[in-house]
C-alpha cells in the first residue's frame, strides 16, 4: 500500500491522482462540430449526475492512492513483525513499486479509456485491488508484494460541472486519496491486535470493494470516444526546455517527497520512542493535513497561477524537510507532520495545471501528462529505497535519510524556479 500522488478528474489536478485534460480538448472539438455530425448534449450545469461522478471518483481515489499512502503503517509493521529479517530499504521497494505502477498505469490505459472502455477499466482495477489485498492477507513472507493497485486514475475524467465549480469538484476528488489514507491506518491499528494481520487486510479489502463497487455502478462516460486515440509518447516534448524542466522538477520532488509517508511511524517508534498509538496515527495526521493541501492551494492557484503557487509551497516543504533533522520530541514531530502534509498535498496536485499552460495544444495534453507523471513515478520508485538504505533503525539514525529527502525536495524547487524565470523571460506575464 502506499503517496500522493494522489490525481483528480475534472481538470488537471492530480492527487497523487492523474487527471486527463483532454476532456477539454474533447469538449472544444465537440463545440466545433455541427449537430448533424456529432449530436452530443452539452455538459450538465451541475446537478445530481455531475456530483455522482465526483463522488464516484472520490471513492476511486480513496481506494487507490488512499491505500498507497497508507504504506507507512505497513512499513513499520513489516519491519517489526512480518519481515523483520529484511532491511528497511528492501521493504520500502514494496510500497514504491506500487506507487510507480499506479502512475505508470495511467499511461498504459489512457488509450483504452479514449476508446470508451471506462466500465471495463474500473472493473479490472476493482478486481486487482481486492484480489491483491486478499492475497496479501494470506502471506507469511516477503512474497506478499504481489499486491497490485492498478486503478488508473484518469479514467475518471469528466466535463460534467460548471467551470466555476471545477476547482471545488477537483479538490473533493483529489482529497479522496488523502482521506482514504487517514482512515485506513486507523482501521489497521484498531484491528491488527484483535484479529491479526490476515483479517485486518481482508477487512480493508472489503471496504475497498464496497467503495469501488459504488463507483463502478454510477460512473459513465458522457462523451463518445474520439475516432483516433492519443499516442503514448510525444517525443517532440523533450525538445521544449519548459517541459524538460517540469519533468526534472517532479522527478526530484517525488524522489524525496514521500520519505515521511513511509518512515514517519518508524521515526516516532525508534527515534522518539513514542507509544504505538501515536506512531500509527501519525500517518493519519500527515494525510489529514494533505487533504487541506490538495484543496486550498488549488483555489489560490485559480487566482494567481499554479506555478506561482507551487513554488512557495515547495519552499515550505523544503524548510520542513531540513528542519526535521533538528526535531527530537513528539510535539515538534506532530507539527512537522501537519505542515509537511499540507505542502506535499499541493505539490502533487498542482503540476498538471502547470502542464496545461506548457502544452502547445490540448490535443496532446493527455500524452504529455502520462510522460510527466512517469518521470514523477520514477522518482517515487527509487527515492524511498535509497533513503531506507541510509537509515540505521537499530541505532535510530535518521539524519542521513532526512538530509537526502531534503536535498531532493530542494532540487525539485530549483527546477520549478528555473521554469518560472524562463516563462517570465518569455513574456508569459505574472499569472502562471
From TrEMBL:
Gene3D superfamilies: MFS general substrate transporter like domains. The chain crosses the membrane at residues 50-74, 86-109, 121-138, 167-187, 199-219, 240-263, 278-295, 307-327, 333-358, 370-391, 397-422. Residues 242-432 form the Major facilitator superfamily (MFS) profile domain. One of its GO terms (cellular component) is membrane. Keywords: Membrane, Transmembrane, Transmembrane helix. InterPro entries: MFS, MFS_dom, MFS_trans_sf, Proton-linked_MCT. It is a multi-pass membrane protein. Residues 1-44 are annotated as: Disordered. It is found in: Membrane. Residues 25-36 have a biased composition (Polar residues). GO terms for molecular function: transmembrane transporter activity. Pfam families: MFS_1. PANTHER family: MFS-TYPE TRANSPORTER DBAD-RELATED, MONOCARBOXYLATE TRANSPORTER. Belongs to the major facilitator superfamily. Monocarboxylate porter (TC 2.A.1.13) family. This is Major facilitator superfamily (MFS) profile domain-containing protein.
